[in-house]
Amino acid sequence: MAVPAALLSMICVQGGASIAKRMFPVVGAVATSALRIGISAIILTLINRPKLSQFTRKQWLYCFLYGLGIAAMNLIFYMAIQRIPLGLGVTIEFVGPLFLALALSRKWLDVLWAMLACLGILLIVPWQNDHLDLLGLFLAFLAGAFWALYIIIGGKISKVMKGRDAVTTGMLVAAAIIFPFALWDGAIFHVTPIILLQGLGIAILSSALPFTLDFVALKNIPAKTFSVLTSLHPAFAAFSGLIFLQEQLTPLQWTSIACVVLASMGTTLFSRNEAG
């Protein structure tokens, strides 16, 4: 179930991101991210009811790092796609898992797939665009670094805790980290019942479901395989941005996404054959 879980997670995340981006003009990226993480934490806590008092010091340390990765990855990514198209932001963000795959690689063929994905990332960036938002690109790269941290800690924490306890506690930690930024931003005070309902939808699609599904995937496949498998995110993001946000990409950028997807398929098929 690892590969289907990872694919369903990506569909949920990009659908939720499209809804979130529609909220940016009203409450901004910081408040939207806080709503997503905060509501997700409440939902997961009510469902899973983790026994926090029974956690060891090592488990709490992993939960803190896991929550830090979740909070930073989501907040910084939302700030990035507020400035650049969703498909572009997700593809650039993938540089984190890509370099993680290279660092963990043990076979030359894995490096070949990762290099193909790297080519896709280089092609998608509009280097000759005078109106290129450099801050948006930098934030997308930074979000990718925290995405890699999320993958690494997710693989480690799955070996010392139950999945539901780890995901729920990590989300609680992420909420505690991100809400001070939301209070400082101030837009959270302008949330209406309609926006709160949209935040609930984003929380379910972008956090509660995908982080649980990711945990299932990370528990059953290596972090290297998972990190390159998630290169399908740009394709889902580009189609989601096109359908729901009317964000157009150039033919070269669509080609770059195809490179990334091909790299993901190659890695997944090779790993499956090797396992068989």
TrEMBL record:
Please state where this protein is localized: Membrane
The record's section on Pfam families has: EamA (PF00892)
Per the record, what is one GO cellular component?
membrane
- Keywords assigned by UniProt, alphabetized: Membrane, Transmembrane, Transmembrane helix
For the keyword Signal, the answer is no
Topology relative to the lipid bilayer, per the entry, is: Multi-pass membrane protein
EamA domain ranges (all copies):
135-267
* Chain coiled-coil ranges: none
Q: What is this protein called?
A: Inner membrane transporter RhtA
Q: Which residue ranges traverse the bilayer? A: 27-48, 60-80, 86-104, 111-128, 134-153, 165-184, 190-213, 225-245, 251-270
Q: Which organism was this protein described from?
A: Sphingobacterium psychroaquaticum
Top-rank taxon, per record: Bacteria
Annotated InterPro entries: AA-Vitamin_Transporters (IPR050638), EamA_dom (IPR000620), EmrE-like (IPR037185)
Q: Which family does it belong to?
A: Belongs to the EamA transporter family.
